[in-house]
Amino acid sequence: MSEPVQEYTGAIDRGLEGVVTCTTSISTIEGSTLLYRGYTIEDLAEHATFEEVIYLLWYGWLPTRRELDEFSTDLHHSMALPPESFGWFHGLPTRVHPMDFLHAVIAGLTLHDPDANLVNAAATLRKSTRLSARIGTIVAAYQRVRSGQWPLQPLAEKSIAWNFLYMLKGEEPDEKEVARFDTCLILHADHELNASAFSARVTSSTLSGTYSSIMAAIGTLKGPLHGGANEQVARMLLEIKSPDRLESWLEGALASGEKIMGFGHRVYKEGDPRAKILKAMSKEITRETGHPELYEMSARLEDLMSQRKALICNVDFYSASVYYSMGIPIDLYTPVFATSRVAGWCAHVLEQYQNNRIYRPRGKYVGPKGETYTPIDER
Length: 379
Ligand code: COA
Fold this sequence. Notes:
mainly alpha, 16 helices, 3 strands, binds coenzyme A
C-alpha cells in the first residue's frame, strides 16, 4: 500500500523566481535598465552595430576599428552554409515550424564541423562565429525553399542585417530598413539568465559542446511563453482586425482566462526598455508601410493592459508590428529572434566554460515511499 501523497505546498523557487544560479558579466537588468557589459541598451541601439554588440558580448569590451574589421570579416565569411547543406534543404519537409527546421539544419551542421565536440575556448569561439553568422542564413534559406526558390548566398562584404533581408526577400534592402533591422538584432541579442540562455548554460555545463547548447536554447526559445510570443502577438493583432474591436476582444480574452501575448515579464515590473525603443520604431514603420492600425491597436492594448491587469508589454509586443511592416512572414519572427539571441547564447556558453560546474538542482519529492514490487498477475 502506498503512503498518502503529501500535499505539495508549492512555490519553493517555482520557476526559479529570484534564484541566482551563477555570476555573469554579460548583461543585467536593473529596474527598467538593461545593460550589456555595462552599456545601456538605449546607447547601443542608437550607436552600435549588431557586429559590434556580438564582439562586446563575447569579449567584454567595444572593439577598436581593427578588432571590429577582423571580427566582422571572419563573421561575414562564415555566413555561407557549407555546400552539402543545400541538399538537406531540399530533402527536409518545409511545412513544419521553422524553429524545428532550424533545429534540424543545425543538427546537420554539427555532423560536418570538425570542432563539434571540442570544448576549449578557441573551438568554442570558432563555433560561436559559425553559428551566429549562419542562423540568419538558414532562416532565409528556409523561406526561399518553401516558396520554391533556390536559397541565395550571402555577400561577405555586407552585414548580417543586410544579408538577412537580402537573402529573405531576394532583393537588396534599403539602408533605412537595414538600420532598423540591425537595431532589432541588437535589442534581442542578450537578456541575462532568460530561459533559453539558462538552457544553453545547463547543457554546456555537462561539457556537451556549443552545438548541443545552442540547440537546447533554440528549443527553449520556441515556446510561446518565451520567444514564440512575438509570432502570437502578430496573429492576435490580425485576429482583432481593427482598433474599434479591441476592447470587446480583450474583455472576452481576459474573461476566458487567456494570457495576452507580449505582456508580462518575470523581471521587469515598471517597463521593458527594449519595448520602448520598438514602440517608437513601430509607430514610424507601420505608418510608412501602410499599416498604421497595427500600431494604434498595439498602443491601445498597451494602455488597456496597464489599466486592467497592471502588466507591462515586453520585447515581443512591438517587435510583431515592426516585423510585419518589414514584410517578414509571421512564422519567422521567432527564428529572427534566434538569429539575434544566438550571440547571447554563445556568450553564455563561453562564460560557463570559464568557471564550469554542472547544474544539478534538486526536486522536492512528493511521491509515495515504501512501495514493494507486486508481481504483474497480482496487480
Ligand atoms: N496576460 C494575462 N495575464 C497575465 C499575463 C498575460 N500576458 N502575464 C501574466 N499574467 C498574470 C498571470 O495569469 C498571473 O495571474 P494570477 O497571479 O492571477 O495567476 C500573474 O499575472 C503572474 O503571472 P505569471 O505567469 O505567474 O508570471 P511569470 O513570471 O511566471 O511569467 C511570462 C512571465 C512572461 C511568462 C508571462 O507574463 C506570460 O506568459 N506572458 C505572455 C507570454 C509572453 O509575452 N512571453 C514573452 C516574455 S518576454
